[in-house]
């Protein structure tokens, strides 16, 4: 073999190993999005359970606030459906976008419920109610933190697929930009 052949084989091998390394890096970053979503999904499930308990407790006490309860139940159902659609592939933009919208609607309904609780002084004597509210606030803080971790994982992945020359390989491998919440 001539020197030119060795050079071509060396360049081809380097390109092959670089391509494999770039693919593995993108897969590692995409798996980071999956791992971050699993943590976020746990907090979404915990929030759903606490909201359900809270509504069961409040409905007999405030029967005239049915519209508020229905709005929260509907928003919770939308979040559950969106999270279910996002679970298999949290790096796909469409279901994550739907989850973001559903989460915003849920946050508005939950804020309305919390505001309503503050205006009903007669509820202050129910210690178990406020224990649930405190637990819900704690889960919300954890959910917010896990959402930040998810968004950071998405940002790292998106930055990696836009860098040259990985950008070329990302399109060849079928990697698309992920969406944050």
Automatic annotation (TrEMBL):
Family: Belongs to the LemA family.
InterPro entries: LemA-like_dom_sf, MamQ_LemA
Protein name as annotated: LemA family protein
Keywords per UniProt: Membrane, Transmembrane, Transmembrane helix
Domain of life: Bacteria
Compartment(s) where it occurs, according to its Swiss-Prot or TrEMBL record: Membrane
Transmembrane segments: 6-23
Organism, scientific name: Roseateles oligotrophus
Topology of the protein relative to the lipid bilayer: Single-pass membrane protein
């Amino acid at each position: 073999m001539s020197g030119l052949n060795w050079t071509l084989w060396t360049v081809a091998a380097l390109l092959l190993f670089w391509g494999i390394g770039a693919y593995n890096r993108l897969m590692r970053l995409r798996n980071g999005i999956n791992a971050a979503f699993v943590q976020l999904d746990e907090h979404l499930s915990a929030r759903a359970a606490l909201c359900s308990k809270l509504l069961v407790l409040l409905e007999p006490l405030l029967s005239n606030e049915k519209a508020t309860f229905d709005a929260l139940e509907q928003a919770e159902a939308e979040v559950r459906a969106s999270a279910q659609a996002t679970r298999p592939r949290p790096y796909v933009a469409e279901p994550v976008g739907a989850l973001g919208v559903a989460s915003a609607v849920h946050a508005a309904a939950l804020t309305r419920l919390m505001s309503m609780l503050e205006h009903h002084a007669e509820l202050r004597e129910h210690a178990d109610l406020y224990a649930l509210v405190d637990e819900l606030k704690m889960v919300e803080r954890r959910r917010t933190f896990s959402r930040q971790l998810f968004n950071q994982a998405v940002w790292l992945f998106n930055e990696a697929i836009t860098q040259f020359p990985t950008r070329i390989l990302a399109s060849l491998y079928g990697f698309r930009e992920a969406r944050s919440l």
